[in-house]
């Protein structure tokens, strides 16, 4: 236990860095957000950040994961009605993509994963694939319950559900409302129903 | 006509800049591509570039529009069979998103439009909206011909057709093959058919 005070200091620094990042992501355009600014706000040296994270994008991703403002959570409700549960998923996705702080996080990650293959792989493994696995679990239960076609392709089904919303957002096409989420769901369910 | 030689010089510089950009986009990671490097390759001064374009992203967009390697062209074929024509659209989209140079252009634009609202607006007006208008025209003809439901929402239909492919690409989920394009089409047509 000799290193306990150092560990506590580390923990405090880590928390300060992630809090500073979460604050700054809402204040500064992402291109102007620097590791120096995060370090200054957190009251640590830049080297402390680079000791734990390889890049600005990696710190931002960690802050996003801890901020509770990431995209829809990992567990999907199971009310027994697949339309109800997918409606919550799609509306939650619209909410995450339009709420200012979570949108700022997601735009930042969208920029980073186009350019940083290592971070893109981490993003997929720690966030995207677990999210998709949670949706797959819920779809499988709906097939079991006879609500969806038994020959459903899970990957394609998830792409049809989330792709339209995600694409309007990433291309800046607007129109991301709960009503739009419901329209995507209604159309997609016509393809997925038993 | 006193300014004709100057106009010719301008035209040569412009072509040299766009050619240099198209070459460099395939050679250099986008974050490392600079206006200086484009100017050097084109044999012009940096100020010549900034006289015509406000930013690196704006030059890259112009080069993309002129390189013929942008996403699917603006005119959609009309063979009389909507499935055939949408298959060409979706497979063309997969091809544009996976062919190295056009993918490099599209990743660059994807990064820029998250961060540059003015360029995002130009991108929408000069590329996205005309592309979507061309698809809308083809869908309207298919409704007229009784191939698609008359109450079809064009915007939503386009999102369902192109969103899954676009999203797999922007999230780096892979699997972008002609077979995947055909699977998206088959599923979506089930929702859109009359």
From TrEMBL, chains A, B:
Keyword Transcription regulation attributed: yes
InterPro entries recorded: Homeodomain-like_sf (IPR009057), HTH-type_TetR-like_transc_reg (IPR050109), HTH_TetR (IPR001647), Tet_transcr_reg_TetR-rel_C_sf (IPR036271), TetR_C (IPR011075)
Key words, A-Z: DNA-binding, Transcription, Transcription regulation
NADP in keyword set: no
Record's signal peptide: none
DNA-binding feature ranges: 34-53
Annotated HTH tetR-type domain residues: 11-71
Molecular function, one GO term: DNA-binding transcription factor activity
Recorded superkingdom: Bacteria
PANTHER family xrefs: HTH-TYPE TRANSCRIPTIONAL REGULATOR RUTR, TETR-FAMILY TRANSCRIPTIONAL REGULATOR
Name this protein carries in UniProt: TetR family transcriptional regulator
């Amino acid at each position: 236990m000799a290193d306990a005070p150092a560990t506590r200091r580390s923990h405090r620094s880590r928390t300060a860095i992630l809090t500073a990042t979460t604050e700054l992501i809402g204040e500064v355009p992402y291109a102007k957000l620097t590791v120096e600014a995060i370090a200054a706000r957190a009251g640590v040296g830049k080297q402390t950040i680079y000791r734990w994270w390889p890049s600005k994008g990696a710190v931002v991703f960690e802050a996003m994961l801890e901020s509770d403002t990431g995209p829809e959570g990992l567990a999907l409700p199971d009310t027994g009605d697949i339309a109800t549960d997918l409606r919550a998923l799609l509306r939650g996705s619209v909410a995450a993509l339009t709420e200012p702080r979570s949108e700022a996080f997601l735009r930042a990650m969208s920029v980073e994963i186009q350019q940083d293959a290592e971070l893109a792989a981490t993003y997929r493994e720690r966030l995207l694939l677990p999210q998709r696995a949670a949706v797959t679990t819920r779809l499988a239960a709906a097939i079991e319950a006879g609500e969806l076609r038994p020959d459903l392709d899970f990957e394609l089904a998830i792409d049809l559900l989330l792709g339209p919303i995600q694409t309007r957002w990433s291309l800046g096409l607007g129109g991301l409302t709960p009503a739009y989420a419901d329209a995507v769901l209604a159309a997609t369910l016509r393809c997925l129903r038993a």
